Amino acid sequence: MREIKGANGFVVARVDAEGQVTMGRDAGPISGRVGSKGEIYDDDAGVHQVGYVDGSGAVFDMRHETRGSVDSWGHVFNARGELVGSVTHPADAGVLLLLVDEAAYALPVPGAADTGSSLMDEALELAADVQRPGIRKDYKPLTDRDVFLEHLPPQ
């Protein structure tokens, strides 16, 4: 069983000894096949070819457009030159680039920095809450009757 890892280090697909591809780390339905000469199929019968990996490590789709490449260490790069994963067999790079969804192996994109508040702003807000506590909303407002009449002794 050969494991195909994404750039994040997680296993995104597995290829068994017969060339059958299953997505994810666990056993599941067969979602593709790897041929003996680097052909990549998207069905379990090996009928519908979606691409191939040539002898130099370049990955092509069926329109003969370059989708990426694999180097001799097993690092897989997409067409933009970004590292997208690692494989143990060069033909498995085609599985990563042609069959696996890009969201499964992509590195998380760092979020934009929140420049609106700083640590000092948060500290000042906490200090203001301690010095001037807010008004509790669960009390009814006092009326004249509450203040002047109900607390008088009966006559």
Q: End-to-end span in angstroms?
A: 96 Å
Topology, number of strands: 10
As a percent range, the share of strand residues is 25-35%
The amount of helix comes to: 10-25%
Topology of this structure?
Layout (H helix, E strand, L loop, with lengths): L1 E5 L4 E5 L4 E4 L6 E5 L4 E3 L7 E5 L4 E4 L4 E5 L4 E4 L4 E4 L5 H8 L2 H4 L13 H13 L12 H6 L6
Antiparallel strand pairs: 1-2, 1-10, 2-3, 3-4, 4-5, 5-6, 6-7, 7-8, 8-9, 9-10
Features:
ten-stranded antiparallel β-barrel, alpha+beta, elongated, single chain
Structure description:
With 155 residues, this protein is α+β, with helices and mostly antiparallel strands. It has a domain of 104 residues. Helix content is 20%, strand content 28%. The protein has a 10-stranded antiparallel β-barrel. The protein is elongated and about 105 Å long.
Summarize the structure.
This protein is of the alpha+beta class and 155 residues long. It has a domain at 2-105.
